[in-house]
Specification:
Alpha-Beta Plaits, 4-stranded antiparallel β-sheet, alpha+beta
C-alpha cells in the first residue's frame, strides 16, 4: 500500500467524521427551530461532503477509498450523537407522576427547579403530576433526583421546541393572582 493511498483514505475518514457529525448537529438544530445555526452548519457540511464524494467517485476503482468513506460515515454518526448529548442544547419538559406530590414538589423546588403541580385521580387512587421545564443537559439529573425521592414515580421526558417565560410558576401562587381571582 502506498503512502498516498493511506493518507487520502485517512483524510476521507476524517472528513466524513466531520461532515456526518455536523449533519447530526444540524438535524437537532432544525428540530429545535434554530434556523440560522442549522443553515450555517449545513453550509460547511455540504462543502465537506461534495469534496469527499467527488474524490471517492473519481477513484471508485480504489476500494480503500470506498471503505474509508463508509468508516467515516459510521464513526461520524457515533461522534455526532456523542457531541449532541454533551452539548445538550435546548430544553425538556419532565412530567413526573407521583403519589408523593407535595413532598416531591417541595424537594424539587428547594433544589431550584421550576414546576407546576396538577392533582389527579388514577386507577389506584389520588396522584400528582408535576411538570418541570429544565435545560436538556439537566433532565437526567432531575429524573435521578425524583426517583431518589420517590422510587415509584413515573417520569416522562419530552423535548420542548418553544418555551416562553411569560408566567412565573412562583408568581402563580402569589398575591397578585389571588386579587385577580
Amino acid at each position: 500500500m502506498n503512502t498516498e493511498l493511506v493518507f487520502t483514505s485517512l483524510l476521507i475518514v476524517f472528513a466524513r467524521i466531520t461532515d456526518v457529525s455536523l449533519d447530526t448537529i444540524r438535524t437537532v438544530a432544525i428540530v429545535q427551530g434554530r434556523r440560522m445555526f442549522a443553515g450555517l452548519v449545513g453550509f460547511f457540511e455540504a462543502l465537506i461532503y461534495v469534496c469527499v464524494i467527488a474524490k471517492v467517485l473519481l477513484n471508485v476503482d480504489k476500494p480503500a477509498y470506498v471503505c474509508a468513506y463508509a468508516l467515516g460515515f459510521a464513526l461520524g454518526t457515533y461522534l455526532g450523537i456523542t457531541i449532541d448529548q454533551r452539548l445538550a442544547f435546548g430544553h425538556q419538559l419532565v412530567t413526573i407522576t407521583t403519589r408523593q406530590g407535595v413532598a416531591l414538589a417541595k424537594a424539587l423546588r428547594a433544589a431550584g427547579h421550576r414546576l407546576a403541580e396538577v392533582n389527579g385521580h388514577g386507577r389506584d387512587g389520588d396522584l400528582t403530576i408535576l411538570f418541570v421545564e429544565t435545560p436538556r443537559r439537566r433532565s437526567q439529573q432531575l429524573v435521578r433526583e425524583a426517583t431518589a425521592l420517590d422510587a415509584n414515580c413515573f417520569c416522562l421526558v419530552n423535548d420542548v421546541r418553544v418555551a416562553r417565560s411569560g408566567l412565573s410558576v412562583a408568581a402563580a401562587t402569589g398575591p397578585r393572582l389571588a386579587q385577580e381571582g
